[in-house]
Amino acid sequence: MDMRAFDVPRYLSVLPLFSDLSPAELGRLAQGCSMRRLARGDLVFRVGEPCEEFHVTVLGQIKLFAISPAGQEKVIELAGPGHSFAEALMFTDKPYIINAQALTDSLVLSVGKAAVVAEIEQDPRFAMRMLAGISRRLHGLVHDVEAYALHSGMQRVIGYLLRDQQAEDCVSGDMLTVSLPVSKATVASRLSLTPEYFSRVLHELEAAGLIEVDRRDIRILDVRRLERYPSTPA
Which residues, listed in sequence order, are joined to residue 66 by a DSSP beta bridge? Predict the structure, then answer.
């Protein structure tokens, strides 16, 4: 992608957070944006660095993660194309409390705090849209915590495989192919599972004739049967 030809205002206009802004507002906001190309393994930010902007993944995959005192990594979120992150933290005047790293070659758009605050001061409705976006993210994180606390490992894996599939759109016999955007170990960490347990669940589902695994491609042979598959203890 030619960075010079990238139309930042137009890209901002298709994001839910900015879809209601006028061309003039988008133009002002774009002036406070910057673009970065990241190679696999590059950090977007690390714990302790000042947070003066939030970020949107344009291309690639970004991993948000924490490191325990024992050195273990916990993946908190995976931000694919169109997903934003660090919005709430930007308003706290505190440094980053997690790390963000590119899992693939990626393109990240960073939106400066000063530009966002300037738009809020001009139009308080913009603050409401920011709050709505932050609330959606919080709701998602609460849902994740609920799943970790109340759902077995098997249920978490099945829920992840079916996360983008509406049950009402499926009938018995429907098939679906899910391509994991990142490694199985990363998905396992995202689900608070060990890689070994994640692999065992996939093997069990495959042995039950519910899925077929081909590297990162998982073919769900019957969506409804998979939805009803009995849970097992984590």
Answer: 74
The reported pTM is: 0.74
Residues 222 and 128 in one domain: no
CB-facing half-sphere around the CA of 180: CA atoms within 13 A: 19
Helix axes 113-122, 124-150, angle to 10 degrees: 120
Residues 17 and 96 in one domain: yes
What dihedral do alpha carbons 190, 191, 192, 198 form, nearest 10°?
Answer: -110
User: Does 116 share its domain with 177?
Assistant: no
Question: Can you give the residue range of the structural domain that contains 207?
Answer: 153-228
Report the distance separating Cα 27 and Cα 187, nearest Å: 37
| pLDDT for position 56 | 95
CATH of residue 204's domain is: 1.10.10.10
The 10s digit of each residue's pLDDT in 101-158 is 999 999 999 999 999 999 888 888 888 877 877 777 777 777 777 766 667 889 889 9
Q: Residue 34 is part of a domain; what is its CATH number?
A: 2.60.120.10
- One-letter identity of residue 215: R
Share of the chain above pLDDT 90, in %: 51
Residue 145 lies inside a defined structural domain of this protein: yes
3-state SS, 95-121, equals ECCCEEEECCCEEEEEEEHHHHHHHHH
pLDDT tens per residue across span 164-178: 654 334 444 567 888
Q: Which of 19, 11, 64, 68 is nearest to 35 (CA)?
A: 11
